[in-house]
Amino acid sequence: MKLRQFEQIHAYNFLLSFENGEIWEADLKDLIGQHVTIADLHTAYVNSDWGCLEFLGGQVDIEPKTLYRYAHSASDKQAA
Prior knowledge:
The strands form two sheets. This protein has a three-stranded antiparallel beta sheet with strand order 1-2-3. Strands 4-5-6 form a three-stranded antiparallel beta sheet. The protein contains two helices and six strands; from the N terminus they run βββαβββα. It has a single domain (about 5-80), classed as NE0471 N-terminal domain-like, CATH 3.30.2020.10. The mean pLDDT is about 95. The chain is of the alpha+beta class. It comes from Candidatus Methylumidiphilus alinenensis.
C-alpha cells in the first residue's frame, strides 16, 4: 500500500493519503521521534518509486506497509 501524498498538520501529526484512496491522520512521534527532530520534519517527502515517507534525504524512511498499519492502528486508538 504505497503512500501517494502527505500533509504535515502540526508537529508530528500528518495527514497521509494512500494509493487505495484512504486518508488517515496519524501522530508519527512514537514512530520517528527518536530519529527526526521537529526542526527536521520539513525534510519529509514521498519516495515515488517505493511509496515510502522519507526524511533527511532518505536517512530515515518509513516503509509504506508500516506507515499504513501505524496510521490505521493510531486511528483505531483515537476512536476507542
